Amino acid sequence: MMQNAQKEILEVLLNRPDLLQTVKQVIAEPDDFTVETYRAIAQRIWQCAGQSDQPRLTQVLAGVETVSLSDLITAMAQCGADRSNFEQTLTGALDSIKQCRAEQVRDGVRRLVSTAAEQYGKDAETAALLEYQSKWQPNQRRAGGA
């Protein structure tokens, strides 16, 4: 699900780079793409967007180092253009990303509870919540603290 959503996001951005700011509300950096090839494409889109408010597909392709990546970008752009419902596709893809991330957090909590149950026995639930809280406390240096 995450890979397909990432692909759809890139297909949209290759056709509608003006929607990058909407994407950045959920995916702040190209490094957030989990598929290496998609990450490379995202890096190129972000880079071109830094040079121009409305980067064109030709600009994205101009900096690509391999023919195979260039072919993939062209195919993705065409797939997005054929679909053409950019805003709806982007909304669905971003929602999928949010759902996947929420599921990852829930899985993390489940693992913590399981680990705590092994470590603390019958008081595992309380211990798991305390352990979870300790991992999610804000970093005081980032939050403007000393």
Folded structure, characterized:
- This protein is mainly α and 146 residues long.
- It has a single domain (2-135), classed as DNAb Helicase, Chain A (Orthogonal Bundle).
- The protein has helices at residues 2-15, 20-24, 36-51, 57-62, 67-83, 86-120, 124-135.
- The protein is elongated and about 60 Å long.
- The termini are far apart.
- Mean pLDDT is 84; it is low at 139-146.
Briefly summarize what is shown.
By secondary structure, the protein is an all-alpha fold. The protein has helices at 2-15, 20-24, 36-51, 57-62, 67-83, 86-120, 124-135.
Could you list some keywords that capture this structure?
mainly alpha; elongated; 146 residues; single chain
How many domains? The number is 1
Low-confidence segments, given as residue ranges, are 139-146
Structural class: mainly alpha
- Say how many strands there are: 0
Number of helices: 7
The CATH architecture can be given as: Orthogonal Bundle
- Based on CA inertia axes, which overall geometry fits? elongated
Corresponding CATH superfamily: DNAb Helicase, Chain A
In whole angstroms, how far apart are the ends? Answer: 41 Å
The description of the largest β-sheet is:
none
CATH topology grouping: DNAb Helicase, Chain A
| Order of helix and strand elements from N to C terminus | HHHHHHH
Portion of residues in helices? over 70%
What is the alpha-carbon Rg in Å?
20 Å
Mean pLDDT: 84
Instruction: Work out the strand percent.
Output: under 5%
Report the CATH C-level class: Mainly Alpha
